[in-house]
Design a protein that fits this description.
Distance between the termini: 196 Å
Number of strands: 0
Length: 198
């Protein structure tokens, strides 16, 4: 009859080896270094540190609820649920940020519109002041022109009166000359002494 060899105990798993090593020499550094905090795949916008933290939280929750068992589906489902909650929270934050950005854009547009209206009002006020100044200057110029026209009319009237007076003087002078010449002719015809010329 063949004798059977005694069954050797099963090798411990890597997790059990790490647990035994950490219990045996807690002052030594861990056997595995922390992986670099890189973004996860599938465009989840989560980093590996967040995934590890969620997985650790799920494991801790399961350990407190009844101890860690071989059934890891519940742990993964909780991790997935936690990831979905985190993703939904991130989406809500993104939506809130978009709403805040939209509100800021609206405020900026309102401020810009108010600034443009104020600039338009300032330009309108400046144009009104310029128009008022031009109207005042035009009124003053019209008054000055009216005065100059009145002066020119007076000067024209005075010049016409002077010309009329000069013409009357010339006519009187010519009349006196004609009368003197007529008197001389009469005297010459009568044989009298000619009167002196006027």
């Amino acid at each position: 009859m063949k004798t059977l060899k005694p069954r050797t105990p099963a090798r411990p798993s890597p997790a059990e080896v790490l647990a035994i090593a950490s219990q045996a020499a807690p002052h030594h550094p861990p056997a595995t270094l922390a992986a670099e905090d890189r973004p996860t795949t599938l465009n989840l916008r989560l980093r590996e540190s967040r995934v590890r933290a969620l997985n650790g939280a799920a494991l801790a929750a399961k350990a407190t609820s009844g101890g860690i068992s071989a059934d890891r589906g519940v742990t993964f489902s909780r991790a997935i649920t936690a990831l979905e909650g985190a993703i939904s929270a991130l989406r809500e934050r993104a939506v809130a940020a978009e709403l805040q950005v939209a509100a800021a854009d609206r405020r900026a547009e309102q401020v810009e519109q108010a600034l443009n209206s104020e600039r338009a009002r300032a330009r309108a006020n400046v144009l009104r002041l310029r128009v008022d100044a031009l109207e005042t200057a035009l009124t003053a110029a019209e008054l000055a022109t009216a005065r100059e026209t009145e002066r020119a009319a007076r000067a024209t009237a005075e010049l016409a009166a002077a010309r009329t007076a000069l013409s009357a003087t010339e006519a009187a002078k010519q009349a006196r000359k004609a009368l003197g010449l007529l008197a001389r002719l009469r005297a010459a015809l009568r044989g009298e002494q000619c009167p002196p010329a006027l």
